[in-house]
């Protein structure tokens, strides 16, 4: 039986588990939250409360490992506590979920997997360091650089409905995005076609200004768009402001060419329409 050890069993990993478990996979997922552990168990995932004194028992059972935990002030939390155990493990496939933030700011220009890593934020730099740390272990590593994630429960509709959505205008600003179900498709395709050392950008075909996405969501709801606001970091959380420090368009040719992926949601218009349909309109 194939067994996935999901380190930091969050939003994207949950979508992958929904694909794998019906195929007969065993999934072990870590969480810090006992309440979430009960939900995971109900979904067929074997919960493992984090932190653990040793990761070796779980690694011994795992044929595949997915690391989704973001770096913290101490760096990658899994490497910080369990690097030696990981280096001694022998999984068939390891995936690390990184971010397109490692490329930094390209003023709206295109980047691909060969673009030099020049992160513009502390978060992006921490991701570069985490990628390097995982590469140094000598495992069959696959790196997935994710664009902005959306999907069920993470769309703009609720904010538009309750009036908290903001349409920030920063000329030239553009982001790439990816629906969570397409992330799961990419990960499953990589598991089926392992290529240790490979790096993949995971994004859709339609990078767009964030204000355009909010306006389109409002139009789908039949509501007026939120008023335009000029970009002002002083009115935003540090996290939100950091997203606007970078503007780039991300190429996704490699997931199509090397993994044979066909995106279910090639752009935000298709993705938002599906979310609204799932939400009952």
Please identify the top-level CATH class.
Alpha Beta
Q: Briefly note the structural class of the backbone.
A: alpha/beta
Strands across the major sheet, in which order?
3-2-1-4-5-7-11
The CATH homologous superfamily is termed NAD(P)-binding Rossmann-like Domain
The low-confidence parts are none
Q: Could you name the CATH topology?
A: Rossmann fold
Instruction: Write the element-wise H/E pattern from the N-terminal end onward.
Output: EHEHEHEHEEHEEHEEHEHEHEHH
Total helical segments: 11
Largest sheet, if any? 7 strands, parallel
Mean pLDDT: 97
Outline? globular
Report the radius of gyration as a whole number of Å.
Answer: 19 Å
* Portion of residues within helices: 25-40%
Q: Quote the beta fraction.
A: 15-25%
Number of domains: 1
CATH architectural label: 3-Layer(aba) Sandwich
Query: Care to count the β-strands?
Result: 13
Through-space gap between termini: 40 Å
Characteristics:
Rossmann fold; single chain; alpha/beta; 281 residues; 13 strands; 38% helix; two-stranded parallel ribbon; 11 helices
Describe what this molecule looks like in 3D.
With 281 residues, the chain is α/β, with parallel strands linked by helices. The protein has a single domain, classed as NAD(P)-binding Rossmann-like Domain (Rossmann fold, 3-Layer(aba) Sandwich). A 7-stranded parallel β-sheet has the order 3-2-1-4-5-7-11, with helices on both faces. Strands 6-13 form a two-stranded parallel ribbon. Helix 1 crosses helix 7 and helix 8 packs parallel to helix 11. The protein is globular and about 55 Å long. 38% of the residues are buried. The mean pLDDT is 97.
């Amino acid at each position: 039986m194939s067994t996935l050890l999901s380190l930091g069993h969050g939003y994207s990993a949950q979508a992958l588990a929904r694909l794998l478990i019906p195929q007969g996979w065993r999934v072990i997922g870590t969480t810090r939250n006992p309440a979430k552990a009960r939900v995971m168990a109900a979904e067929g995932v074997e919960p493992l409360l984090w932190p653990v004194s040793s990761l070796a028992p779980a690694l011994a059972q795992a044929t595949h490992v997915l690391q989704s935990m973001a770096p913290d002030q101490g760096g990658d939390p899994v490497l910080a506590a369990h690097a030696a155990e990981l280096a001694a493990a022998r999984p068939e496939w390891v995936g690390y979920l990184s971010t397109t933030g490692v490329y930094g700011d390209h003023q709206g220009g295109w980047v691909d997997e060969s673009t030099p890593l020049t992160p513009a934020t502390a978060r992006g730099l921490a991701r570069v360091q985490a990628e390097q740390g995982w590469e140094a272990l000598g495992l069959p590593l696959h790196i997935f650089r994710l664009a902005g994630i959306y999907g069920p429960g993470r769309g703009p509709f609720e904010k538009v409905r309750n009036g908290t959505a903001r349409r920030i205008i920063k000329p030239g600003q553009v982001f790439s995005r990816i629906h969570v179900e397409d992330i799961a498709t990419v990960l499953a395709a990589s598991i089926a076609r392992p290529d240790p050392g490979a790096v993949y950008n995971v994004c859709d075909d339609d990078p767009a200004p964030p204000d355009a996405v909010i306006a389109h969501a409002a139009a789908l709801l039949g509501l007026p768009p939120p008023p335009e606001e000029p970009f002002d970091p002083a009115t935003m959380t540090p996290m939100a402001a950091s997203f606007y420090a970078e503007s780039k368009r991300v190429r996704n040719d490699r997931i199509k060419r090397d993994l044979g992926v066909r995106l279910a949601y090639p752009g935000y218009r298709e993705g938002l329409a599906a979310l609204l349909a799932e939400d009952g309109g």
